[in-house]
Design a protein that fits this description.
seven-stranded mixed beta sheet; about 50% strand
Length: about 110
């Protein structure tokens, strides 16, 4: 079965950085779009960034210039480098991948606090 496994979440101070990783496995030949979403307490889940297999990228306005998405197609892995983190970035971050249909990871918690 296809699985997405996130890693890299944790507690970080404002202005700090974290790098999230998400590896897809389970008999995968190729993945189309991959991306990151987040859901903060009391809020709806929102798109953070999407990257296509060919490398086209879309960012949410709230993270442009601070977050950077990338992928390694050979490893079926997508990354999210998060810089200049703010308290409002605190959320559960979810990995997403389109492999015929959408798949989701279980999420990893990022907490930005002093």
């Amino acid at each position: 079965q296809v699985q997405l496994v996130e890693s890299g979440g944790g507690l970080v101070q404002p202005g700090g950085s974290l790098r999230l990783s998400c590896a897809a496995s389970g008999g995968i030949f190729s993945i189309n779009d991959m991306g990151w979403y987040r859901q903060a307490p009391g809020k709806e889940r929102e798109l953070i960034a999407i990257i296509t297999r060919g490398g086209n990228i879309v960012y949410a306005t709230s993270v442009k210039g601070r977050f950077h998405i990338s992928r390694d197609n050979a490893k079926n892995t997508v990354y999210l480098q998060m810089n200049s983190l703010k308290p409002e970035d605190t959320a559960v971050y979810y990995c997403n991948a389109n492999i015929g249909r959408p798949y989701w990871g279980k999420g990893t918690l990022v907490t930005v606090s002093s």
